[in-house]
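Q: What changes when adenosine monophosphate is included in the input?
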Amino acid sequence: METIRTIAWMKELVRQAHAESRIIGLVPTMGALHRGHVALIERAKQDCSPVIASIFVNPKQFGPNEDFSKYPRTFDKDQEKLEQAGAHALFAPEAPEIYPPGFSSYVNVDGLSDRLEGRSRPGHFRGVATVVLKLLQIVQPDFAYFGRKDAQQSRIILQMARDLNLNTEIVVCPIIREPDGLALSSRNAYLNPDERHAATVLHRALEAARTELQAGVRDALQLQTILHATLATEPLAKLDYAEIVDAHSFEPITRISKPSYIVLAVFLGKTRLIDNLYLEPKPSAPDELDIHL
Ligand code: AMP
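A: The predicted holo structure follows.
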């Protein structure tokens, strides 16, 4: 697996792959790779060759009081994992390669970027959309793979791809979890043993909501009450938000009757974790839901 540091060299490899009519897949990451990232690579390999992973800790998506400088960086291990997973190339530019002096163009996906994660992390999605558009421009992939773990981010990228007529198909892949239900995240590395134990409360809250949904509950307020009650059982957990939203607009809804998300953001100490449950009425029986945990 080749590691590529410059945009010029990345573009040259892309030019060669296109000349051979190959299907290019891109898996953008910030490194500190785990099984969730590996699952994206494996999914990409089903459709594409070459599969290009990127590692770039994007300074523009971190707020001034966020964890950019201490974000986990495990580059050598990441390279090994990507090699083992069968990625064909790794694009790992330094920040000045992506944002040279004088850089001044940004992408804003209005509306969607202001809610939930966007409200808690002002400017976050502007940074995400900008770097993802740049990566898509550089790598020109036929397919790009994102995790549903970051549901709002995936939705924003889909919207950007549609609005800006990008040639890349965006593929959103399922959440990969630890055996106890905690969604894998590079930020889980920040948790001390007590916080790690308490962090399962996100999954427990979603499971409690799932039980209600399976019993036929569709009222958002009732579901929210269950979420809050479950989260309140964990003294180390501090709620940022727990909402039930339309899967398209990410606006709050009062009743589940179309594709929706239950979205959670919770602090364990200084570490902020997110998780979600995706709900999809069955086309054949709209009163019944497919529940994607
Ligand atoms: P990150 O390195 O955190 O920026 O994540 C890179 C990609 O991996 C994003 O598309 C994430 O949504 C995805 N991802 C992160 N964690 C998971 C997970 N537990 N399951 C599936 N995808 C994930």
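Observations recorded in class: The chain has a mean pLDDT of 98.
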